[in-house]
Design a protein that fits this description.
By secondary structure, the chain is mainly α. It has 2 domains: 18-80, no CATH class; 88-160, no CATH class. It has helices spanning 65-80, 88-129, 134-160, 172-176; strands at residues 21-28, 40-46, 53-54. A 3-stranded antiparallel sheet has the order 1-2-3, covered by helices on one side. A hairpin with a 6-residue loop joins β2 and β3. α2 packs antiparallel against α3 (134-160). The chain crosses the membrane at residues 103-128, 134-155. Keywords: Membrane, Transmembrane, Transmembrane helix.
């Protein structure tokens, strides 16, 4: 399954074989919103753990995205050649990718907070002394904090994901609800 971009930078729909698709899930929107915001998004999971979104399968476009995805999985099962069962090794890849994504997001957020703190310190040093190490405060320390946070958060996530997952499969009603 490849996800590519056209010459304008827009994401093209995923292309690939039906066997490369691990699952299609309707998930709650990660961030809240107003009254007109989407409450659910549909995500296509690949066997490698990647998860491109399916933009037109949400609760804005459809009355019941859960039923639509269930119908889509049923229709695709005939052509797929294998069942839509959960496999522990793919679930671990999905969790690992989600953890890496969150670690990078949190590392960027932390680096921006450090940059803002260093900017305040720079202003205070300039007011007090008339000079300050600008490159050190605005480039080196935020970059080092990003590297340290990214390494620490990735290490923390790797320690959370089991090496050999043997999780029981959730009941079918819970899985699609």
């Amino acid at each position: 399954m490849t996800i590519s971009r056209d010459n304008r930078g827009r994401r093209k729909p995923p292309r690939g074989r039906l066997l490369d698709i691990y699952d299609i899930r309707v998930e709650p929107t990660p961030r809240g919103g107003g009254l007109s915001a989407r409450r659910h998004v549909t995500v296509l999971y690949g066997n490698d753990g990647r998860r491109p979104g399916l933009p037109h399968l949400d609760d804005r476009q459809l009355d019941d995205p859960h039923a639509e995805v269930a119908d889509l999985l049923t229709a695709a099962a005939r052509h797929r050649g294998m069942p839509w069962d959960r496999r522990p090794e793919v679930e671990a890849r999905i969790r690992r990718r989600a953890g890496h994504r969150k670690a990078w997001e949190h590392a960027w957020t932390g680096a921006i907070v450090v940059l803002l703190c260093m900017l305040a310190l720079l202003v205070a040093l300039v007011v007090a002394n008339g000079e300050a190490p600008v490159v050190l405060l605005l480039v080196c320390i935020p970059a080092a904090s990003f590297v340290a946070l990214a390494a620490l958060l990735n290490w923390r996530w790797e320690s959370q994901v089991p090496r050999s997952p043997r999780e029981p499969e959730p009941p079918q009603a819970v899985r699609r609800a």
